[in-house]
Amino acid sequence: MLDIVLQRIASSESAQNLLRHIAEKKTIMVDGYVGSMDAVLGILAAQSAYVNNRLSVIVVPDSLTYGRVLDDLTTLQDYTTHKIPILQFPEDELLPYDDREANPAFVAARQESIEQLLNNEKAILVTTVRALSKRIPGPRSVASYKIELQSGATFQFQYLVELLHEIGFEKQEIVDQPGTFAIRGGIVDVFPFAQQNPIRIEFFGDTIDSLRFFDVVNQRSLQKTDYLALYPKSESQTAQHDADLTDYWPQDTLVMLLEPEILQGALVKYWDEINDSYQRKSEAHSELLAPESRFLDAVSVMKKLNAFAGLYFARYSRNMDFDKINFAAHALESFNSHINLLKERLIAIRGQYKVFIACNNTGQAERLSELLDSDELASGVDFVIGVGELHEGFYTEDAQCVVFTDHQIFGRIKRTRSHRKFKTAQALRHIASLKPGDYVVHVDYGIARYAGLEKVTSGEHTEECLKLLYKNGDKLFVPLEHFSRVQKFSAEDGVTPTLHKLGSGDWDKVKARTKKTLKDIAQDLIKLYAERKSRKGFAFTPDTHMQYALEASFEFEDTPDQTKVTLDVKKDMESDNPMDRLVCGDVGYGKTEIAIRAAFKAVQDSKQAAILVPTTILAEQHFETFSSRMREFPVRIDVISRFRTTKEQKIILEKVQRGEIDILIGTHRLLSKDVQFKDLGLLIIDEEQRFGVAHKEKLRQLKATVDTITLTATPIPRTLHFSLMGGRDLSVINTPPQDRLPVKTEITQFDEDLIHDAVMKELDRGGQVYYVHNRIQSIDRITDMLNTVVPKARLAVIHGQMAPQQVEDIVHAFMKREYDILVATTIIENGIDIPNVNTIIIDQAHQFGLSQLYQLRGRVGRSNRQAYCYLLTMPMSVMPSDALRRLQAIEEFSDLGSGFLIAMRDLEIRGAGNMLGAEQSGFVNAVGFELYCQILDEAVQETRQEMNVVESGKKEEITQQAEYMPALQVHVFCDTYIPDTYVNVPSERVRIYKSLSDIISIDALNAIEQELVDRFGKLPVEAKNLLQMIEIKLMTLPLCAERLDIDENKLVLRFDVKSMSQPNMADRMKIRMNAIVKTFENLRFFQNKDFLDITFGFEWYDATKSRIISTESKEDSLVLISAKKIISQIIEL
């Protein structure tokens, strides 16, 4: 669709005139453009320049405009004749003289642009005036540090390592982000700054054997390449910063300036900020370079830009002596979801213009088509609905076309997309890794301390075991086959577990108590679920056109989880069983929108909805959100809170009783006896666990009669989620909204300069700041400090010793932007959602727990703006090690949802308490969270079988007698371990061992073998033996043996006599024994009352070949190969 728009505009007289000037390399002014026309004209101009082998550059005044223009260009690029690459050179969002690391995605985008410009790439480069103002290393300087790698070429391994250090790459154990590299034997992994994926360089001596891109998440190779160039980071200090971005542009570059006078004003303002920062910081740092050495002033930047032939978008710039083309375009009104007004507009322009309606996605296009499907539009209205994410529509008489956007039709805000994203290595790999000193739980022996990996030799066999230390110095060595029985201990934050004594029996008693309690809980939950399913409730009707219109007007695109949960809720509402669904998701993940849609659905069937929240502030926030979303629909919404007078509350309650209010929002006041609904159909509870016992009892009574949705931001662990699927309806939202940026987190010592910079950076972009100080007695001192450091900022203070009404009043004023900084204790940890606050400074951060830090950081980052969290601490040199670990964890795992992996462990335990009862925390702390969930799962499964629960309409089958499958132990004569010379990171060896211990198929084993060869090179003989031993074990499992022994002369299979006599085993064993006797020679049998041993001899092999192969040999063990052949033959019998 947008290709037709581009063709119509390109064919217009004004556009043809513009393209002639560009072809003649003359500077031209453009006036009369609106909306997204700057991007439309920009990409048409760039197409003309591209044909003539010219680079195009678009310079914008600020980062918001940068995001919008980049968005529109990216959309339009798909509809152009020439698919011109779009390069990005964003500003770093740091204040002048702030030498901290910029956002890695921004660094990588700038680096990629530098590299493409060095290679004379003809593209469209988008940048801002602030980005242009910074001095950077010049083209010759950067090119001189280039490292060129060619497959098959000679290149000294150690020299490459030295060069990587020199150009700014950081050595790590595992490559997980741009600018890092890792070494493993003859392999070097490097993550170039300008690549989406890292590269694996495999050497054979001093020859580059191969170059392979690999996936940073699973570390597996993706594809080969023959050549790669590595450049130094443009921000690094390797090269002298003696140039600027314009030095990378050819002389014939087409430079497009978006409002030159506004650009110049932005440059002047930035130069003032630079000088202010220099004056303030140079007093304490005399070595600071003068502004002229690090930046260009406004006059210099404009002079450099004006040296190129250009296209000046000058709607507001008048004093320019260039030819001007006026496109006479006009802006379009917003219809705010009034579809009838849109229809009237389409009918009014019938026959005059070609109309295009650009929607963000196919779903929106289909919904809009349904809403516009009417007889009056069927005749003579020429419009096309299609997919195309433009920010603003326009109409132009010259091209005779009108472009509407769906977000303008529905009154939504168009968010800019993130254009540069990197996959980073999964936090889980690091979290699951054990470090010496960590507490662990062995399922059979209890809580111990992990003391590392240790080689254990028995006879001729050496293997690597987990070494666990128990009470009184007892030691337990855990071999590979039992790794899966060891888990990292996790409990509530701050809990230190008690070590168990081996052989004391205490551990078995703890597990038994936990199992009994959880079985009682499981019975209650499943009975409650069954009772609710047997009751009859109101069945809501399917969605109406008005429901479609409300959902289409949502200003953001639904995440996959949001879509699924919405469907789950609607399905529940349309059934005739009362709904009781828990919706769990992190703050800002879209739970409120689900509640809005459910409430609206209830109102569509003339039912009332009640929204119950724990605080007055939340009630006000929900009232504003619900009212805003439904403002164009005939829905009557009100709120009953402390901010309403007694008289107003009385009027509201009378209206509710008469049915004149459709949706009522409030705190526990809604549970009072004087609140009587005419016809309540839906109850939505936000954070039920924060209500008192009496309130919860009233809620239980309400839930019995009306559909209920409970919203919670406290995470429910995935394992608990699956265990309780038969006990309560749960929906989990794990996916963050599109383009929600992770909060950039930084640990730093208390620094007034940093506080000033952080606050001013946020205020300069129109935002607000939280400053958390958790000591009430010294909070006034902090306020005085802030008034001195940032005198222009308006401050407010709240803490727990203030009256609740006073706290609510101040927060309310802060929400209305009457203050810039809110100084607070951890009182802000829950229940405050203000999207305009995107910087939080946490004082004395080392004194907080991990879950507290995670929740406090979660107060910011609710929009598509980059949010910042500063953790101010005591000096690192004197900080307790556990505090430092907490801070490093919260800093390292800043990705969205990463809290679900580590920082949320404590919150998950709270979530378990909310679901199962607060007293459960004692059991969690006794056995560890993972084992607790495992025992719960077993309890639920057993209870379901005992109660013969009917689930999903199908009766669950209970196996009368499970087939016996003993735990097979395998013992071999040779060494089976992963040498530390092959995988030199102990935690990575543990991870690999854990993966091997969990394997259940030959295919999975082959995949791990491929991963090892890919990542670490050719397998050493010990690792080959290990993998072959596991393969033999997998092959032997179907035989139901309990032990397999292999030495250099024989293979011995041991069977348990008692299990062999069971009815389901006896006949099978008899047939197999007869076949074995007929097939094999050199058999020996030995049986007593407990077991039967069958020995298969290797005598028929040549004696020299059957001996153990030494560890220096590069050949596979012939004995293990022989063992595999024997087992294969037995299986086939």
Notes on the structure:
- The chain is 39% helix and 20% strand.
- It is of the alpha/beta class and 1133 residues long.
- It has 6 domains: 2-138 and 239-328, Rossmann fold (3-Layer(aba) Sandwich), CATH 3.40.50.11180; 147-230, Penicillin-binding protein 1b domain (Penicillin-binding protein 1b fold), CATH 3.30.2060.10; 330-409, no CATH class; 536-733, Rossmann fold (3-Layer(aba) Sandwich), CATH 3.40.50.300; 744-895, P-loop containing nucleotide triphosphate hydrolases (Rossmann fold, 3-Layer(aba) Sandwich), CATH 3.40.50.300; 969-979 and 1020-1132, Aspartate Aminotransferase, domain 1 (Alpha-Beta Complex).
- Strand 42 and strand 43 (1050-1056) form a beta hairpin.
- Helix 13 crosses helix 18 (545-552), helix 31 packs across helix 32 (929-947) and helix 35 runs parallel beside helix 39 (1118-1132).
- It starts with a helix and ends with a helix.
- Mean pLDDT is 82; it is low at 424-432, 896-904, 949-964 and 1100-1116.
